[in-house]
Amino acid sequence: MSTIDYNFTSCPDRRGYGSLKWEKYADPEVLPLWVADMDFETAPEIVAALQARLDHGVFGYTIPHAEPIEAVLHYLERAHGYPAKAGWLNFLPGLVPAINLCCHAFTKPNESVMTATPVYPPFLTAPDYAKRELIRVPLCLDASDQWNLDFEAMEAAVRPDTRLFILCSPHNPVGRVFRRDELEALGEFCERHDLILISDEIHCDLIFDAEAEHSVTASLNESIAARTVTLMAPSKTYNLPGLACAFSIIENRELRQQFHQTIRGIITEVNCFGYAGCAAAYNHGEAWRLALLETLRDNYKTLRSFLARELPQIVFRPMQATYLAWLDVRGLKLDQPARFFEQHGVGLSCGEPFGEPEHLRLNFGCPKARLEEGLERMARAMQNR
Ligand SMILES: Cc1ncc(COP(=O)(O)O)c(C=O)c1O
User: Fold this and answer.
1) Looking at residue 4, what is its pLDDT?
2) Quick one: pLDDT at residue 385?
């Protein structure tokens, strides 16, 4: 199938299907541009595989089996040059439970966990839920307006009781793709302070900047591999979060055992459709993914030029990956920016749970016309204020 056959210009009505994204707002006129869930149908190749699984008619307990295991291993080798082994792999019904369980598995009560903010909210709540202390180190900006890990601040903040660093790579919400040398430096930092590195790479196949390339953290060298827990899923890239299929890769046997002991009896199995969707995404989804990236690149350009032209008080820094734009809205001088835009018909993520109030996150993974409608509403809201 050629890329032009894929539909990125419309999306079926999602109301009435229990969509978290679309059913959040009581007012049906609010256009939801918040949670990381795209308004696109998934790849037809994936729909066909799910249909075939449905046609089988038997939906018993399903264990990890050859099809999804081989699909994931081939994908890691082909797309990221990472020769992972089946024994390192553990399928999971989601990465959020995995992040929480990592805090339990690898730290003791009152020990601390470090992460770089702003960041995906569960990174900030997981340590607290587990009664571990959270050390937040803000990302810093360089002269070219690029977000970086602030190694100086990390050295100053790390403590003898720090056990984990949770990394988002590529980074949600700032959209930064970390270079190899930066990840190596992070590995050295973790080694110096004996930290386990939780590397959440769920956004690694959503890089639309042609100059940027993803490096799987654990693939960089043996020493990093020995202390890294890699978390991945096809769910963001192929818009399958409702299928609940993700996986961890842990090379170090001891860490793997610790993780398994913590999750057993607690975490549910992945269901048969999750496995089928995951295998189909990695085996047959590449043409769709490439077409998606073109759409995201185009939407990103639309967003950038619209904000620069119509809402120049919003600071929107260059990004390389994801469909989640991080907007610094301090210049708008709004008391509650998310609430303000919601009242004017646009549902955005509030920055506070990411660790930065006065910021908003906008999901541009939707048909361009829908994005433009949301942006027009935002501009009108500011004009009529
Ligand atoms: C960095 C990151 N990790 C994990 C998730 C969610 O993972 P899951 O749906 O598998 O729990 C998201 C969703 O947006 C995310 O951005």
Assistant:
1) 56
2) 86
Rounded to the nearest angstrom, the distance between the alpha carbon of 118 and the centre of ligand 1 is 15
Task: Judge contact between 210 and 174, C-beta under 8 A.
Answer: no
Cβ–ligand 1 distance for 235 under 6 Å, the answer yes
Other Cβ atoms less than 10 A from the Cβ of 208: the count is: 22
CA–CA dist 82, 155 (Å, integer) = 29
How many Å lie between the centroid of ligand 1 and the Cα of residue 96?
Answer: 6
Report the separation in Å between the CA atom of 382 and the middle of ligand 1, taken as the mean of its atom positions.
32
pLDDT at residue 2, rounded to an integer: 47
AA letter at 196:
I
* SS3 assignment, position 136: strand
Residues of the chain with pLDDT under 70: 1-4
| 330-365 burial: b if 16+ Cβ within 10 Å, else e | eebebeebbebbbebbbbbbbbebbbbebbbbbbbb
Could you please report the per-residue DSSP string of 29-43? T-EE--SS--SS---
Distance, in Å, from the CA atom of 211 to the CA atom of 144, rounded to the nearest integer, reads 15
* Contact criterion met (CB below 8 Å) for 371 and 346: no
Gyration radius from the chain CA atoms: 21
39, 11 contact by CB (below 8 A): yes
Is 95 a pocket residue for ligand 1 (Cβ < 6 Å)? Answer: yes
Question: Strand, helix or coil at 247?
Answer: strand
pLDDT confidence of residue 348: 98
Calculate the CA 252 to chain-centre distance. Answer: 24
Q: Give, using CA atoms, the residue closest to atom 4 of ligand 1.
A: 95
pLDDT of residue 5: 82
The structure tokens listed for 317 are: 């820094």
Residue listed under structure tokens 């050629």? 2
- Closest ligand 1 atom to Cα of 241: 9
What domains are there in the chain, each with its CATH number? 3-44+286-383 (3.90.1150.10), 58-284 (3.40.640.10)
Neighbours of 180 (CB within 10 A): 13
Atom from ligand 1 closest to the CA of residue 246: 10
* Ligand 1 lined by 149 (C-beta under 6 Å): no
